[in-house]
Please model this.
Amino acid sequence: MGKLGGFLSGIAIFCALAGVVSAFTGCVKRPETLLLPLKPISENETEPPSEPLESSADSSSGDGSSDEVAADSAGESSEDSLPEENSGEASFSEPSEDSEEVSSDSSSESVSSESDSQQALVPSFTLWSPETDFVPEGEEVSDDFFSDALFIGNSRMQGFVLYSGLSLHAYTGVGLTVATAYTDPLFGSGEDKKTLVDALSETPYQKYYLMFGLNEIGWTSYRTFTDDYGGIIDRILAVNPQAKIYLFSILPLTAKRSSESDWQNNENVNLFNQLIWKLALDKGVCYLDAAASVAGADGCLPEEGTSDGVHLNKAWCQKLLSYVKTHTA
Model:
């Protein structure tokens, strides 16, 4: 009876251990969809949804007319700015009762120190650029080069089309993402509006310029981003297998705007630009390192190039146009 009891006790212990192991392995999240680590979301900030950060109400139909981009949703006006994130209420720590009193002689130093600390809140940043496999600088093309080109993307692309000074064909929308490209009927007129993916099947172009990522850099699934973006590229190639496709890198934010968010910042711009670069390699299309063309010496978008820390003003759109005209394949 003693041996039988010991045997049964051993079986019980084994089953208990097996249950613990099973429970643990069942909770482990497998990292197949995560290629690079995202900066964690702070406790006071809501997790970014897989939805556009801007309203998708305004879009352009791509007929090549000068009024195809809504002037009230791009450029100098801040109405096209991304909505402020829900950062929660700020919390401050009160000094303890037994803390030493600060002398009046050090008050001016305290003010100076506070000013210095506020400047120190803006972190140093190095803009990522690929060392190989991007479109190099070449001879500048004429405006006619873009007569058979279609420009596609979010509000940043919308502003670029508006302030380029050229009559460009465009499919752009405020808040447009690689996900809503499949779901939101934004393009066309009246009740016959189509999603971006469906609209791409109507008229083939020889060149396609795509700008996505601004509204997606808070997504936690990189695979969803690259799969959706890759599907748009596949649809273009299905319509015109000989098309030349250019993928814009995501343009940086100003240092101030970047420092205000744990996820919509230049660090994540760097991460997603690496995904876009790798996608361009996989699909055999062209990567435009456009971010470097508008960045300042600190790698961020200069304050003088934007009114809201995100969208380019007219002068910086012209800088971007000069880059595009000298980087063709």
Q: What stands out?
A: The longest strand covers residues 149-153. The CA atoms of residues 78 and 308 lie 6 Å apart.
